[in-house]
Amino acid sequence: MNSLPLSWIVNSGANQSVSDLEVESASTLWIALADLKSDGKLDDFISGVLTKKKNVVIRGIPYEQKKYFCRKGFELVPNGVEALLDFTFDHFEKKSLRELIRRGKRHGKVKEIEYSYDNAKLLQDFKKESTHGKEPELLYLFQNEFKDAERLFVFENGKGEWLGGLLVSRNYEKKIHLELLLRQRNAPVGVMEALIYGTFQALKETGARYFSLGEVPFVFFERYKILSKAKLISFGGKMIRFAYNYNGLYHFKNKFNPIWKVVYLGGYPKVKFRHLRLLFTKSRLQDLALYKLKSQIF
Predict the structure, then answer these.
(1) How far is it, in rounded angstroms, from Cα 165 to Cα 178?
(2) CATH class of the region 86-212
(3) How far apart are CA 121 and CA 71, in angstroms?
(4) Three-class SS of the chain
(5) Residue 25 in this model has a pLDDT that exceeds 60
(6) Inter-axis angle of helices 95-105 and 191-203, to 10 degrees?
(7) CA-CA distance, 278 to 236, in Å (whole number)?
């Protein structure tokens, strides 16, 4: 299986599943998430989709697949960046980061949790106790449930309580992708850094080359034309920065000295302006913004 869009999973199981949403009176298909067989081919899947729909939207297209999707007739619009950690590099050499990891380790240890129905429910319960647990949960942007095709790592204190949680999936043979990163509301300083460090060490045995810390939307390293779609996405991000702190997310991931790669929103045959609005509402970013706005007012 080739490199997949972010949060699409390579699954060794016999079955595959796709989370797609029909929008614009069913004229457009947004393929949000997918769980594909490891012996399949991305080209066969995409070609099959394009024969069924006139308009297709896919977000999270990685930089290394830019040329492929352009050849298939997609318009690609930058919508953020992906943070990649290379298992052959030392991403934890910075003195300040090592100190945070040391402080975090004093409060417990990193532990992998095996998949089961009960453990999947424990993760859902932990989400409610996490930093953003009371806010509307974003949908269709990442895998938000513990499945048997994923791995869950937690930072557990001496009492057996979870202080942090990290859910990862296999994006393709060479890359493990971070889906959920959850912090208990009162977790001590350094716990999340220690959790990422411990998970990174554990994942080295998978044979993958990269550990992706996931996407940071609305961050751009290039300047775009005033009337471009990328500029509109950037403007939209700034408008909801009070609700979704993507700058804080960028700075947290950047402390691990990642390799930053552009991530694209793809539309076949075009990314339409109304698609941007639909993704904003369907993903519940709109609900999150309204919730934060009401919290500030009342």
Answers:
(1) 11
(2) alpha beta
(3) 42
(4) CCCCCCCEEEECCCCCEEEEEEECCCCEEEEEEEEEECCCCHHHHHHHHHCCCCEEEEEEEEHHHHHHHHHCCCEEEEEEEEEEEECCCCCCCCHHHHHHHHHHHCCCEEEEECCCHHHHHHHHHHHHHECCCCCCCCCCCCCCCCCCCEEEEEEECCCCCEEEEEEEEEEECCEEEEEEEEEECCCCCCHHHHHHHHHHHHHHHHCCCEEEEEEEECCCCCCCCCCCHHHHHHHHHHHCCCCCCHHHHHHHHHCCCCEEEEEEEEEECCCCHHHHHHHHHHCCHHHHHHHHHHHHHC
(5) no
(6) 100
(7) 13
**Distance from C-alpha of 295 to C-alpha of 185, rounded to nearest angstrom:** 18
CB 190, CB 184: distance < 8 Å: no
| pTM score | 0.93
C-alpha to C-alpha distance for 192 and 75, rounded to whole angstroms: 37
- Rounded to a whole number of angstroms, the distance between the first and last alpha carbons of the chain is 50
Q: What does the pLDDT look like over 229-262, one tens digit per residue?
A: 888 898 899 999 999 999 999 999 999 999 999 9
CA distances from 184 to 26, 98, 164, 193, 264 (A): 40, 21, 6, 13, 31
The single residue listed with the structure tokens 């919290």 is 295
Residue 233 CB partners (closer than 8 Å, separation 6+):
77, 78, 79, 218, 265, 276
pLDDT in tens, 154-167: 999 999 999 999 99
Rounded-to-integer distance, Cα 256 and Cα 94, Å: 8
Listed residue (229, 274, 269) closest to 25, CA to CA: 274
Q: Which amino acid is at 22?
A: E
Cross-strand partners of 149: none
Q: What is the location of CATH 3.40.630.30 in the chain?
A: 86-212
CA 80 to chain centre: 11
